[in-house]
Amino acid sequence: MTSQRTTAVAKNARRRSRAGSALLICLFVVSATAMMVISMVDAETYQYSALRNTMAYERANYLAAAAVNHALAELEQDVTWRTGITSTEFPSGSGDTYAATAADGSGKQVVVTGTGTADGVTRTLQVTIQPE
To answer: What end-to-end distance do the CA atoms of the chain give, in Å?
Structure first.
C-alpha cells in the first residue's frame, strides 16, 4: 500500500511541475508574440514616414516644374516679361505653393527659377533659355 501511495504522490508531483512549466511556456510565447508585433508596427511606421516624405518631395518637384512652365508661358506671350509669379497655391486649399522669377542672364539669355513647396519640403528648378 505504501508503494502505491508513493507512486501516486510522485505522479502528483510530476503533474504540478508540468503545470508550472506550461505557465512559463505560455508566458514566453505571449512575450515573443508581443515583441514581434511591436517590431512589425515600428517597421510599418518607419516605412509610412519615409513614403510621406517621398510624396512631399515629389509634389514639391512637380510644383517647381509647374512654376517654370507658368513663367515660360508668360515669356512666350511677352519676351520682355520679368515680373515673376508670386506665391500661388495649387491646388487651391492644399497649402502647397509655387512661385517663379525671370531674370536677364548673359547675352540674350533669360534665367527662369521655379520654387515649389509641399508639406515643408522646398524644391527649386532653374532653367536658362535664349528667346529667339
So the answer is: 117
- Compute the Cα dihedral for 101, 126, 128, 73 and give only its sign: negative
Q: What is the pTM of this model?
A: 0.68
Q: How many residues does the chain have?
A: 132
Residue that the C-alpha cell 514581434 belongs to = 36
* Of 63, 66, 103, the residue nearest 83 (C-alpha): 103
| Residue 53 confidence class, pLDDT cut points 50, 70, 90 | confident
d(CA 46, CA 51): 9
β-sheet with 121-129: strand ranges across:
85-89, 97-104, 110-118, 121-129
**CB distance 91 to 83 below 8 Å:** no
Q: How many CA atoms lie within 13 A of 77 on its CB side?
A: 8
Please determine, for residue 13, whether its predicted confidence score (pLDDT) is greater than 80: no
Considering Cα of 29, then 35, then 41, then 46, what sign does the dihedral take?
negative
To which H or E segment does residue 62 belong? helix 2-77
